[in-house]
Queue: 4 jobs
Job 1
Amino acid sequence: NAGVTQTPKFRILKIGQSMTLQCAQDMNHNYMYWYRQDPGMGLKLIYYSVGAGITDKGEVPNGYNVSRSTTEDFPLRLELAAPSQTSVYFCASSSGGSNQPQHFGDGTRLSIL
Amino acid sequence: QKEVEQNSGPLSVPEGAIASLNCTYSDRGSQSFFWYRQYSGKSPELIMFIYSNGDKEDGRFTAQLNKASQYVSLLIRDSQPSDSATYLCAAPGRTGRRALTFGSGTRLQVQP
């Protein structure tokens, strides 16, 4: 019962470094999402995808990039890490749009120092 | 006006009491609403969803939807210390109904 799998679980980056957060789902869901959650705050949508080859910006896309080459995978790339990107990142998937529940991965806790 | 609004709390209730969590939304066309529970340091977990006006019950949880007043609530009966968590309300957001918008969450504390 894997569901949505995120790697790594924790990471510390230096300012200016780059990295890719991995997300994979095995539920054959078309919709996938990336959120960030700052301490004591709600979830903010970074990017989402409605299917392989289709991505779109969410509420806070600056500083991030995504790709969706397969149904299963939806990686999130940080090109030039900044302290403001210190956060917990959650990937989610759903079988439909906003009428279907989203299933979340366990998250990646990222610190930029 | 925020799309989905919740009181941040904390809401403190004694063990065994009813906890009432509220959420208002701005998009009158929203058709579906979700409640997620998030324990500290963990990911959100779906506990209820509701599509129609009225009440929906699942065990100790009841979701209530009032589309005319644009609010959705979650009642937790016989509250337990293990219910202590942050509860997130979610509704369709700006993305042409392709994604959910989450409220900032209400922190619930159940006192033993």
Note: Chain B touches chain A at residues 8, 30-32, 34, 42-46, 49, 51, 88, 90-95, 97-105 (CB under 8 Å).
Job 2
Amino acid sequence: GAGVSQSPRYKVAKRGQDVALRCDPISGHVSLFWYQQALGQGPEFLTYFQNEAQLDKSGLPSDRFFAERPEGSVSTLKIQRTQQEDSAVYLCASSKSGRETQYFGPGTRLLVL
Amino acid sequence: GQNIDQPTEMTATEGAIVQINCTYQTSGFNGLFWYQQHAGEAPTFLSYNVLDGLEEKGRFSSFLSRSKGYSYLLLKELQMKDSASYLCAVRGTSGTYKYIFGTGTRLKVLA
């Protein structure tokens, strides 16, 4: 079956611009996670949804970062007033439930100039 | 605090065996995962350990010792396509299912 998909795959933004990154999880997966991966580093947790409820947003680095999953399926990660330090790969992962293995999408590579 | 340590880089020869170690110190433990990540691609799931011992899956095996906060990934009969980063991740205690990742070990397989 189809895996996790993310769009766009690449995004170049000017500093101060707002961006929106989309994640389509595997159909039927209840849990959805966002991670940020800097070059040469492991992914770092940003936020976690169970259906439409955002249960953990402790990893969001600032109030410029906002995530939503209004119908419990597709999720959007929005970054307002982007800064150069926001440049990274943003990975989305989904799982059948919180306890199940997470499956990752290909990521969105964001470059802020 | 939360800390996961892995070697940064390893090199091995095609056909050989390589062991990638991972040590962790986390405030809660609910399983340890290994993922493979080729450059520019998504991490793909390799193995999962929650109880002590060895889990074998084809050419890949993973070991866990919870008392020592230690795991390793064993890759046998190395192939060129195994050149990738290998990520060790620990899942937190119930209520928050986030993974805490190490920085990854970049494995180069030489002919």
Note: Chain B touches chain A at residues 4, 30, 33, 35, 40-45, 48, 87, 89, 94, 96-104 (CB under 8 Å).
Job 3
Amino acid sequence: AQTIHQWPVAEIKAVGSPLSLGCTIKGKSSPNLYWYWQATGGTLQQLFYSITVGQVESVVQLNLSASRPKDDQFILSTEKLLLSHSGFYLCAWTSNTGQLYFGEGSKLTVL
Amino acid sequence: GDSVTQTEGPVTVSESESLIINCTYSATSIAYPNLFWYVRYPGEGLQLLLKVITAGQKGSSRGFEATYNKETTSFHLQKASVQESDSAVYYCALGENNYAQGLTFGLGTRVSVFP
């Protein structure tokens, strides 16, 4: 069975500080991977997707970057956080039928 | 671009009453979108409730139903008799057959069912 794990579960960070959120998928070879973000009261907004190692496509510009260093790993990061980065970040992968499987999410609070 | 509009929450309903959450979509870049309902129960992750990939078809799961209506570009979620355990946030979403680019979600509708 496939599992998806995100870390950290929650972070409280200062404006201007760096951030790194991680996501690991086990049990699925060459998955399509996604980062979604949800601001408080907002919709789930797709940020990035990756269909293979080393390739990442940006969907929305939020002064964030993403990388896929391994087949099963997807990293979201920035060198300088903004207040507007606060929210809930979800990593996901798709099955062959298009169903999205989400991780538990990482809650980010920027102060 | 593509977009999804759904009933604005929160929605409060009593147990055994009926529930309908409206969802309409605009798929400007997708000729034949696939439609989904996702749900997040308290303390749990976001998960698929049901999906329909063909216009005119109905999907069902856990007593919920949704019909893909291409004429009205709608995909309303309904349940005839809700239970307290249906309290959750429900998201309507659309995607294309090539799922590489992921899904477009609505804002989500928080539903609270009271006994």
Note: Chain B touches chain A through 23 residues (CB under 8 Å).
Job 4
Amino acid sequence: AQRVTQPEKLLSVFKGAPVELKCNYSYSGSPELFWYVQYSRQRLQLLLRHISRESIKGFTADLNKGETSFHLKKPFAQEEDSAMYYCALRARYNTDKLIFGTGTRLQVFP
Amino acid sequence: KAGVTQTPRYLIKTRGQQVTLSCSPISGHRSVSWYQQTPGQGLQFLFEYFSETQRNKGNFPGRFSGRQFSNSRSEMNVSTLELGDSALYLCASSWAGTSGVYNEQFFGPGTRLTVL
């Protein structure tokens, strides 16, 4: 079964601390994984995807097929990073269907 | 260019009624997907349309239906509303509806449906 698991509902850190939001997936085949972010009162937006191998707003995520993980990391959290973060898996190549995790709320305190 | 728009933004209905939600994708986008977002279940895929054809359907009862028009605008309909249908309904669009670095899905602001 295709599944995305985000074990933490809430992650609280202080500004400047490292952040790691966990994401594990279950998928038979080559997965395509994403991190989406939803800031307060804003729409859901793409943060990054593993196929782009990019760093956005200081965030990075590496696909680890052995551990079936796609954790989101940032070395130094900023207050403006406070938001809801969703890990998502594209179900197949020729589709936009996404399977989302339940999300992790990141709170960054000053 | 304008983003994905959804109308109405808020809707209050009573049990047993039906409702139609509308989504206008970004100009040029041919793929439209719908998701239901609730505090308990999170984001769940409803259906996906590409060039007026339903390409995928999630695990929702037949009361949930949708369609896509030739201009790529999409509507979803929920008949015989139940209390549990109260949710934020999100629409997303993309150009190609497929994998690839050049195909990104953009989400609308959602329609908040409350069933009393």
Note: The CA atoms of residues 33 and 50 of chain A lie 6 Å apart.
